[in-house]
Amino acid sequence: MSTIHWVEAQPRSARWHSESGLPLPRRVVVADDLMPAAVAHRLACEGTALLWRGDFHNARQLLRAMDRRVGRSTPEAPECPAEAFHAHRRYRAHRARVLGKLLVLLEADHTLALRRAPDVRRACDEAYGPPSGEPVAVALTELLGVIGAREWREKGVAVPALGARIHPHYGVFAPTRSEYVDLVARAPLPGGGTVRTAFDLGTGTGVLAAVLARRGVGQVVATDVGARARECARANVRRLGLAGTVRVTGPGLYPDGRAGLVVCNPPWLPVRPASDLDLGVYDAGGAMLQGFLSGLAERLEPGGEGWLVLSDLAERLGLRDRGAVPAAIAAAGLRVADRLDTRPRHSRVRDTGDPLHAARSAEVTSLWRLTPA
Predict the structure, then answer these.
(1) Nearest-angstrom CA–CA distance, 81 and 159
(2) With contact defined as beta carbons under 8 Å apart, do 282 and 311 qualify?
(3) How many helices and strands, by DSSP H and E, does the chain display?
(4) Distances (CA, A) of 281 to 169, 233, 274, 363
(5) Surface-to-core class of residue 101, CB atoms within 10 Å of its CB (0-12 exposed, 13-18 middle, 19+ buried)
(6) Distance between CA atoms of 170 and 147, rounded to whole angstroms?
(7) DSSP sequence for 273-326
(8) Residues whose CB falls within 8 Å of the CB of residue 273, separated by 6 or more in sequence, listed in order
(9) Cβ-count burial of 211 within 10 angstroms (0-12 exposed, 13-18 middle, 19+ buried)?
(10) Residues 122 and 150: beta-carbon distance below 8 Å
(11) HSE-CB of 26 using CA atoms within 13 angstroms
(12) d(Cα 89, Cα 295) in Å, to the nearest integer?
C-alpha cells in the first residue's frame, strides 16, 4: 500500500488513501494554526502536502483561504463549448490537486484526533469500510465529502415521483435532479400498462427501480457495476418495502433473461472519469450507452420497450455529434417509437457565473422509447 512519511519529533508514516485518485504526496510537512494561507497555498502548488495538527475549524478556514487563492474560474474561457468544457475540467483538476494537499490523519479506529473535530468514525466506516487497524492519511477535502455524504445518507433526498426519500451512499450518484425521474414516472408503460418484468440498468441508488415497482411492474431486476451502488440500492429498496419486487444484482450490465421493459439512464458525458467517484457523470467513449443499445433487441420480450433516459448536454458541449445517438439506435436495429422531453430545474441552470452556463441553460433531458426495428 502507498505510504506517506513525515517528521514530527521523530520519523512517522501512515497509509495514504484517496478515493478521487489524488497522487501519493512525496513530501509532507506538519502544519498547524500558525500556518499562513499564502504559505500553505505556495507549498501546495509546489507539491508539498501539509499534515494538519491544529484546530479542525481552523483547518477548514485555511482550506477556504487556499481556495480563494486558486481562483473560481478559468481566465479568458474559450468560446468553443468543447474547449470551454475541457478548460474548466483542467481547472477543477488543478484546484483538486492544490486543495488536496491539506491532509488530516485518521487514527486506527477512524478517530480524527484534532481539537474541536467532529466524530467522523461512522461516516468513515460507511465510506471506507471497517477500520484497517492502522492510521490513514486523507485529504481534508475528501473527509469533508465523506462527512457530507453521511448527512445526505441520514436525511435522504425527497423524490416527489415516489412520495418518499431516497438515501444515497458515499460515492453513489444522488437523484437530486428530479426531471429524469419524473420522465420515468409518467411515460406510458408498454403492453397496455402491464409489465411483468423490467430491468433497470445502472440503478445507482435504486430510484428508477423503485419508481417502476411503485407503478405496478411485477418484478424489477436492477443492475450496477459498483458494489457501493448495489449496497445502496438494496438499502433503499428495503426501506421502501419493495424488497419482494426489486432484486439488485451485478456487476454485469444486463441480467439473465428477457424483460418487457428495459430502462437505462447512463452517464451523460462520454468522457473518461478521473476516478470511480465520477462514474455517475462520465462514461468513457459512451461505453455504457453502446452496451445498452447493442444488447437491447435480444433482451426484450415481444412487444417490449427500452427506455433510454439521456441529457443532450454532451451535444451542446460539442462532446458528441448531434446525430450520434439516433445513428447508434438505428445501428443497433432499433427504432424510436416516441420521445418525451423535459427541461432541467437544477440550480446550475440559473448560475450565470458557471463557465458552462450557456449549455446547461439550454439542456434537454429525453426519454427515448425504443423498440426493435
Answers:
(1) 32
(2) no
(3) 12, 15
(4) 16, 18, 11, 15
(5) buried
(6) 9
(7) -SSGGGTTTB-GGGHHHHHHHHHHHHHEEEEEEEEEEEESHHHHTTSS-TTHHH
(8) 279, 281, 282, 283, 284
(9) buried
(10) yes
(11) 2
(12) 32
| β 10-16/3-8 pair status | antiparallel
> Which of 125, 225, 210, 139 has the alpha carbon at shortest distance from 169?
125
* Nearest to 105, CA basis, from 143, 138, 68: 138
User: Cell for 301?
Assistant: 420480450
Q: Which three cell numbers stand for residue 129?
A: 469500510
Q: What is the Cα–Cα distance from 184 to 340, expressed in whole angstroms?
A: 10
Full pLDDT tens readout for the chain, 373 residues: 699 999 998 999 999 999 999 999 999 999 999 999 999 999 999 999 999 999 999 999 999 999 999 976 555 556 789 998 998 899 999 999 999 999 999 999 999 999 999 999 999 999 999 998 999 999 999 999 999 999 999 999 999 999 999 999 999 999 988 899 999 999 999 988 999 999 999 999 999 999 999 999 999 999 999 999 999 999 999 999 999 999 999 999 999 999 999 999 999 999 999 888 888 899 999 999 999 999 999 999 999 999 999 999 999 999 999 999 999 999 999 999 999 999 887 767 777 777 788 888 889 999 999 999 9
DSSP-assigned beta bridge partners for residue 200: 222, 263
Neighbours of 154 (CB within 10 A): 10
Could you give all domains of the chain from N- to C-terminal order, each with its CATH number? 3-152 (no CATH), 157-372 (3.40.50.150)
Per-residue buried b or exposed e for 81-93, using 16+ beta carbons within 10 Å of the residue's own CB: beebbbbbbebee
Given a contact cutoff of 8 angstroms between Cβ atoms, the answer to whether 128 and 109 are in contact is no
Q: Which residues, including other chains, have CB under 8 Å from residue 76's CB and lie 6 or more apart?
A: none
Residue with cell 450520434: 324
Residues 333 and 182: their CA atoms lie apart, in Å, by 28
Q: What is the dihedral of CA 125, 138, 36, 56, to 10 degrees?
A: 10
pTM: 0.92
Based on C-alpha coordinates, what's the Rg of the chain?
A: 23
Q: What gap in Å lies between CA 50 and CA 40, rounded to an integer? A: 8
